[in-house]
């Protein structure tokens, strides 16, 4: 869903997806965080350049989420030093708009909104829905090709041609996003963030983009094993095909160490509770952050959450018989061995 900004170029230019767009976003996100400091709540890559594989106008749209929109005007001169032109609301109440031009071509748009404004949720819902639903993104790409062929010299007609598609997709996206956005867990030292299908995509294919948006680094060591990347792909598919209310059972939750902050690991379930009310938990944490109680704390927090949900009566976990470290974690959580195979123990908490 592109922003309706008036560009200097009247000819519509749509080009294939380019990995450089993520690099361009990451660099600007860092500069914006440094400039606005404590006023920044989050920096988001939005628009078509944020959707992997989608053709787009080669202009990076950035949504800057701030604490107080009234304080943004005081940064106008600093934004000019970064190459941006302050345009005020520029037709959209409550927004501040800053375009950037490089070599006489528009390169970036920064759209600033105050934290809590409905426009933020709307644009992020559209982006994440398109990333999660690749067939919808492919249809959007085909529509762009058709419109460019028909209206390449008429930008207004090009935008009008996308209107109905974007409005219907936005309606679906908001309903989809509302169903998955109410979950997050905090413990004494940790924050567990359930990752959307789009964020799982970023985690394995665009980690710099996810980190720029979150505002902190995430572990790459946890993601390196092929089995983990395969598991993430499986979860992405389940998130797209399963009812939205099952979202927290199918995704991975990012384990964030609050004091850093740092995304040190992943934890999640193997699906919804079965007919007996049991659900299996699994987790992984960066080796550099082990033996500090973080894994135990994360597992305990997620297990407590699960047992408060009506379908869940018990949480299970499997460990190799020779894996003493895993056994210690499960014992500290309060799990007990319920059954075994020749090589593994099955632990249960109920």
How would you summarize what this structure contains?
It contains eleven helices and twelve strands. It has helices at 20-36, 76-81, 118-132, 134-151, 155-180, 197-205, 207-214, 226-241, 247-250, 294-307, 324-333; strands at residues 40-46, 60-66, 96-102, 105-114, 185-186, 190-194, 252-257, 262-269, 278-285, 314-320, 336-340, 344-349.
Average pLDDT score: 91
Which architecture of the largest domain would the CATH scheme give at its second level?
3-Layer(aba) Sandwich
The major sheet is characterized as: 8 strands, mixed
- Please estimate the helix content: 40-55%
pLDDT below 50 for ≥5 consecutive residues: which ranges? 1-9
Question: Keyphrases for this structure?
Answer:
Aminopeptidase; single chain; Beta Polymerase, domain 2; elongated; 11 helices; disordered N terminus; eight-stranded mixed β-sheet; alpha+beta; 2 domains; 350 residues
Task: Please characterize this protein's 3D structure.
The protein has 350 residues and is α+β, with helices and mostly antiparallel strands. The protein folds into two domains: 20-179, Beta Polymerase, domain 2, CATH 3.30.460; 185-349, Aminopeptidase, CATH 3.40.630.30. The chain is 41% helix and 22% strand. It has eleven helices and twelve strands. The strands form two sheets. The protein has an eight-stranded mixed β-sheet. Strands 1-2-4-3 form a four-stranded mixed β-sheet, with helices on both faces. α10 (294-307) links the parallel β9 and β10 (314-320). α4 runs antiparallel to α5 (155-180).
């Amino acid at each position: 869903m592109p922003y309706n900004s008036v560009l200097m170029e009247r000819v519509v230019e749509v080009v294939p997806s380019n990995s450089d767009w993520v690099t361009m976003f990451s660099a600007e996100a860092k500069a914006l965080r440094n400039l606005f400091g404590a006023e920044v709540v989050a920096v988001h890559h939005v628009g078509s350049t944020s959707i992997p594989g989608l053709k787009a106008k080669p202009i990076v749209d950035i949504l800057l989420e701030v604490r107080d929109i009234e304080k943004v005007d005081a940064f106008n001169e600093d934004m000019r030093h970064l190459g941006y032109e302050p345009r005020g609301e520029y037709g959209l109440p409550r927004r501040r708009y800053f375009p950037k031009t490089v070599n006489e071509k528009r390169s970036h748009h920064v759209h600033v909104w105050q934290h809590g404004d409905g426009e933020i949720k709307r644009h992020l819902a559209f982006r994440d829905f398109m990333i999660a639903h690749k067939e919808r993104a492919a249809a959007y790409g085909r529509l762009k090709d058709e419109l460019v062929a028909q209206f390449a010299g008429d930008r207004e007609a090009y935008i009008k041609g996308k209107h109905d598609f974007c409005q219907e997709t936005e309606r679906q996206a908001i309903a989809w996003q509302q169903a998955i956005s109410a979950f997050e867990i905090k413990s004494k030292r940790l924050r567990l963030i359930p990752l959307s299908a789009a964020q799982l995509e970023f985690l394995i294919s665009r980690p710099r983009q996810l980190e720029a948006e979150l505002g902190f680094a995430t572990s790459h060591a946890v993601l390196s094993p092929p089995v983990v990347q395969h598991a993430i792909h499986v979860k992405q598919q389940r998130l797209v095909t399963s009812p939205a209310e099952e979202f927290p059972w199918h995704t991975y939750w990012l384990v964030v160490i609050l004091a850093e902050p740092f995304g040190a690991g992943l934890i999640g379930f193997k699906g919804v509770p079965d007919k007996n009310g049991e659900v299996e938990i699994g987790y992984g944490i960066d080796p550099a952050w082990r033996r500090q109680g973080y894994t135990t704390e994360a597992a305990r927090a997620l297990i407590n959450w699960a047992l408060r949900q009506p379908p869940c009566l018990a949480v299970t976990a499997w460990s190799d018989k020779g894996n003493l470290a895993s056994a210690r974690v499960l014992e500290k959580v309060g799990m007990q061995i319920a059954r075994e195979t020749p090589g593994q123990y099955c632990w249960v908490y109920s």
